[in-house]
Design a protein that fits this description.
about 100 residues, elongated, 6 helices, 434 Repressor (Amino-terminal Domain)
């Protein structure tokens, strides 16, 4: 028998599925809008080359180039990561590159 937390999570997942199917009415739905980021401007503000930015933040170089050229748009977790980098680059840099101690502009 699952514990209370596991049971609550399972119940939430069931309710989310029912909501998506249109079977659940009156449910609270929380949507978070993640703003788009001008990736090239962000990278330049940080003083990084495309290669440095891609390697440092775990983004394939080709993907970064596509974002900067407007051929693709960041989605999902990538969009969240870029929003966090834009908002507070120093904390992200410290978390990912602790030895750098680099101050972002």
């Amino acid at each position: 028998m699952p514990g209370k937390v596991a049971g609550d999570i399972l119940q939430g997942a069931r309710e989310a599925l029912a909501y998506v199917r249109g079977e659940l009415k009156g449910a609270k739905v929380h949507r978070v809008e993640i703003p788009e980021t001008d990736v090239a401007a962000l990278r330049r503000r940080l003083g990084l080359t495309q290669r440095e930015f891609a390697a440092g933040f775990g983004v394939p170089l080709g993907t970064l180039r596509h974002w900067e050229q407007g051929l693709r748009r960041p989605e999902g977790p990538a969009r969240v990561l870029l929003a966090v980098i834009r908002k507070d680059p120093n904390h992200v840099i410290k978390a990912i590159w602790p030895s750098k101690g680099k101050k972002a502009a």
